[in-house]
Design a protein that fits this description.
two-stranded antiparallel ribbon, 3 domains, 43% strand, alpha+beta
């Protein structure tokens, strides 16, 4: 048997006790602290090595790495430094070059005798580039787009060219450096020299001055200015900017302060522009606007992201005022203009360039400058071409309000216009204004996406007092209650107002409901001299005559507007018209004739011709028919009796009244009827008799 005591007396092996949770955490923390300490030590060692050596040994690695990343050749021929000082990145390179792609017109994108800069590290980690200070000597920067406008020299790799975005530079000192910019797709070049002038006082540390010039679409411009960088002791540490530019008589001045040398966001700037034509100024950013007469405009200027804001805008163009606000957004692909502007008073001459009249002619000749003589013929329709290519480059949403139009005998006020441009589709929708107690509303679209340009016109005139509307033509308001309403619906093709109307198709209609008009106007239209003389001697020229209904309408085909119909029914007569006018050559060939419903002892009863041109109309009341009747009357007076001379002009007054239903509905000539249901005399199915066509006369006493 085994000796139990011996077994009991033997020593037992030690029992292991598992470590506690607190001891485990302590060991992990110790390990982490040692790891972190090691990393910090390595980082510090790396920082110390870089700080002591200034990172000069990194030059070949820097050249190879940056060359590979940019797909450009990057060389530093002189001294090189790259280290943390102490946190921000210190970079220095002498005789550094960065090559351009093979398609560029210059060898290098950048070269400089010296570039010394301090870059903020922490913002860089979060994708923001901020340069605390930059010193550059004898630098040369070549910024260039290719001919197609797809690639540029500052976007590295094979990617599509991106807009130029400068890093935020808080302070800069530049000596003897030049910047060159080329954009063949815009026909734009500029060359700017930059230099720093050391200050002679304690207010500013230095003054960065720049000057140069260039051309845009073969138009030269010059620019100059300075950026005064304050000492750190100056409150806010801001930079004072002054910029001056001139081109073709247009002058731009910008002044104010910047948070940094290239930091325009949040800048408090003032802008002043003046010159002969505001459209020239917008050309610099590739935006097409209507021409103007001489202008002067001031505004506040700020920048937020990709948007430039022009606020508190005030100024004049020609003899008109303008105010409001405007923003210019510059996203990656297209420029966008948004604006809300107003004019208290718009001079009618200043409105001319909006539809294509030459502002220089208007400035020199006033309203007469709208008329040109071509081949001995006066032309008034504007022929300025729509700038189709420019419209492709930007979009716009502009609201324009005009309280009053300054125009002699032309009562227009409260103009409201919304202009929308969306990828070459231009819409004036709506364009409204008050006129002579009425209201005109229109929607006009100009589709430059199509070739040729396609324009659609839809213009509506609400009931408007004829006395006020026709005051400039000799009509009187007192005693006139007649109203007129109108509708114009046409389409046309062409890149100018003249071309568009010369190809127009559609309809024009002016409708006159029942009302009163001065007797003298109606009697003179009829050449009813007897009744007119009677009213004159009785001092009843202001006695109104009743207009039952009237329609002045034209059917437009390929730029020719044929009367369809001209028909006015009054208490005492029926006035009918025939003929046409042409948007092609702006000629007029119309005839108006009235038949009396009552007896008149001395009535011309022959057509009144309206001829000539839009710019020089001619009214001819002495027609061939009237002369024939006068000749016959004189012959009879010599052979029979002097009374026969009067008999030749007697009108028995047997004209039939017109049915007003078709007239007031704007129906075509073929649908017009007399009250008895028969067709209206003097109107053909296609808009009245042709010029020169004789109308069968009523006979009196079997003689005429």
């Amino acid at each position: 048997m085994t000796d139990v005591r011996a077994v009991e007396g033997a020593s037992a092996p030690p029992v292991r006790v598992p470590p506690g949770r607190r001891e485990t955490v302590s060991r992990i923390l110790t390990g982490l602290l040692r790891l972190i300490g090691g990393i910090i030590a390595l980082v510090f060692l790396a920082w110390l090595i870089l700080f002591i050596t200034k990172g000069r040994f990194l030059k070949p690695y820097f050249e190879r790495y940056v060359s590979r990343q940019t797909e450009r050749q990057v060389k530093v021929a002189g001294d090189f430094q790259l280290f943390l000082n102490p946190i921000d990145i210190k970079f220095l390179a002498e005789r550094m070059t960065i090559s351009n792609p093979a398609w560029a017109g210059t060898k290098n994108l950048f070269d400089a005798a010296k570039i010394d800069t301090n870059i903020a590290t922490i913002p860089l980690i979060f994708g923001k580039r901020r340069v605390n200070w930059l010193e550059m000597a004898d630098g040369d920067v070549n910024l260039e787009w290719d001919a197609a406008g797809k690639r540029n020299t500052w976007t590295f790799g094979a990617a599509k060219g991106e807009p130029l975005e400068l890093p935020t530079i808080l302070r800069a000192s530049v000596a003897g450096s030049d910047v060159h910019y080329r954009a063949p797709q815009l026909d734009f070049t500029t060359d700017v020299s930059i230099d720093t002038i050391k200050a002679r006082d304690t207010r500013f540390a230095d003054d960065v001055r720049f000057s140069g010039g260039g051309s845009l679409r073969d138009r030269r411009f010059t620019l100059s200015g300075n950026l005064m960088s304050p000492n750190e002791t100056v409150a806010g540490g801001r930079n004072k900017l002054a910029l001056h530019a001139e081109s073709l008589g247009n002058v731009l001045d910008v002044s104010g302060t910047l948070a940094g040398a290239t930091q325009f966001d949040g800048a408090a700037l003032k802008m002043s522009v003046r010159g002969p034509n505001l459209a020239d100024l917008f050309d610099f950013i590739g935006v097409a606007t209507p021409d103007t007469r001489r202008y002067r405009i001031n505004s506040n200027l700020t920048k937020a992201g990709a948007t430039w804001r022009f606020t508190a805008l005030r100024g004049t163009f020609g003899d008109s005022d303008i105010g409001g606000w405007m923003t210019v957004s510059m996203p990656k692909t297209r420029i966008k203009i948004d604006a809300d502007v107003r004019s208290r008073v718009l001079d009618i001459v200043d409105a001319g360039p909006f539809v294509g009249y030459d502002p220089r002619r208007l400035d020199a000749m006033g309203g007469k400058g709208a008329i040109k003589t071509e081949g001995g013929v006066p032309r008034v329709l504007p022929d300025a071409q729509l700038r189709i290519e420019a419209l492709k480059r930007f979009d716009a949403d502009v609201k324009y309000r005009i309280a009053r139009v300054r125009a002699e005998s032309f009562p227009i006020s409260n103009i409201a216009m919304t202009v929308n441009l969306d990828r070459s589709l231009l819409r004036l929708d709506p364009l409204t204004f008050d006129v002579a107690g009425g209201h005109l509303a229109s929607n006009i679209s100009i589709d430059a996406r199509r070739r040729p340009v396609f324009t659609r016109y839809d213009i509506r005139l609400s009931p408007t007092p004829m006395g006020r509307l026709l005051a400039r033509f000799g009509a009187e308001q007192s005693g006139a209650t007649g109203m007129i309403r109108a509708r114009v619906q046409m389409t046309g093709e062409g890149d100018s107002v003249r071309k568009s109307l010369a190809t127009a198709d559609g309809r024009i209609a002016f409708i006159m409901p029942a009302g009163t008009f001065w007797t003298r106007n109606v009697q003179l239209a009829e050449l009813d001299i007897g009744t007119f003389a009677q009213k004159m001697f009785e001092k009843k020229l202001k006695e109104p005559i009743q207009i039952n209904c009237g329609l002045i309408a034209f059917t437009v085909r390929n730029g020719i507007a044929a009367a369809d119909p001209i028909l006015i029914d009054t208490r005492k007569n029926v006035i009918a018209g025939r003929g046409a006018f042409s948007f092609r050559n702006e000629s007029l060939d119309l005839a108006m004739e009235a038949d009396s419903k009552t007896f008149s002892a001395f009535s011309g009863q022959s057509p009144i011709g309206v001829g000539g041109y839009f710019a020089a109309p001619k009214v001819d009341p002495i027609s061939g028919e009237l002369l024939t009747r006068a000749g016959l009357g004189l012959g009879l007076a010599a052979l029979v009796s002097p009374v026969a001379l009067v008999v030749a002009f007697v009108d028995p007054g047997n004209a039939e009244s017109t049915s007003c239903g078709p007239v007031l509905s704007g129906a075509r000539a073929a649908a017009q009827r007399e009250k008895d249901g028969g067709p209206v005399k003097g109107l053909s199915e296609k808009g009245g008799k042709k010029p020169g066509e004789k109308k069968k006369r009523k006979k009196f006493l079997g003689i005429f």
